[in-house]
Amino acid sequence: MSEQQLPARPKLAEPAEPAQADGGAQPPPVEVEVSSFRLIGTLTVAGALAGLVIVLVFQWADPRIEAYNARMLAEAVTEVLGGAERYETVFMDEDGVYKAQPLADTATITERIYVGYDGAGNPVGVAVAGEKAGFQDIIALLFGYDPDTGEVLGMKVLESKETPGLGDKIILDSTFVGQFVRVGTLIEGVKRGRETGADEEVVMITGATISSQAVIDIINMRVEELRDPIGTYWSSVEVTVGGEQIAEEPESGGGGGS
Questions:
Q1: For residue range 170-207, what is the model confidence (pLDDT) as tens digits?
Q2: Which of 3, 38, 55, 57 is the most exposed place for a label (fewest CB within 10 A)?
Q3: How many other CB atoms are there within 10 angstroms of residue 118's CB atom?
Q4: Domain extents for the chain?
Q5: From CA 111, how far away is CA 129, in angstroms rounded?
Q6: Residues 6 or more apart in contact with residue 92 via CB below 8 angstroms
């Protein structure tokens, strides 16, 4: 078998080394100096633009947020008062007296309530807000109150961060919420199976007794605080009878309650 010579592989040229100037020394990197005034100016412009965007977004969103909150409040007042056609906000001054007219000095407003009226202009009750710490966080609610009978007309939780599946039943459990319709005051929370049928009883939610009791405590606390001033104002509320407006006869005591 004859031997065959393989063709010789051509040698690859080695990459040429970069030319070095000044006897082989590389030039130092050029540092570009940024003016401090230019840097400050750039940051100022960026901050001003960001602030302008925030202001524009706030101006766009704020009236919409206010309108939404007002709508939610109106719906809550209507719900807890059993379907009031309209309501008016009544302010308590620093002397503990409720007045229908807005106070000139808002800093003196210590309380506000919402008086509901039916289609004929007759007052149907008062909506009162309150809040207290629950199991997880603050529970805020609104409840309707009838100064004539001292009964709670209804209750709606406005804000709560209670445990999902347990404490949040103070919002989602219609049976629990429904017990606050025409319940007497002061309310007594009882565990299931221990109820006696008393007008002031509310059966608490199993597994969420702390949250349930917090709701009851808020209502009782606010009724005790405001029963007398609400009763005084209620006795002077004008009602419509036969198309004419008259003042209710003043009642003895603070307007009811058991």
A1: 999 999 999 999 999 999 999 999 989 899 999 999 99
A2: 3
A3: 17
A4: 65-247
A5: 9
A6: 98, 99, 109, 110, 111, 112, 113, 229
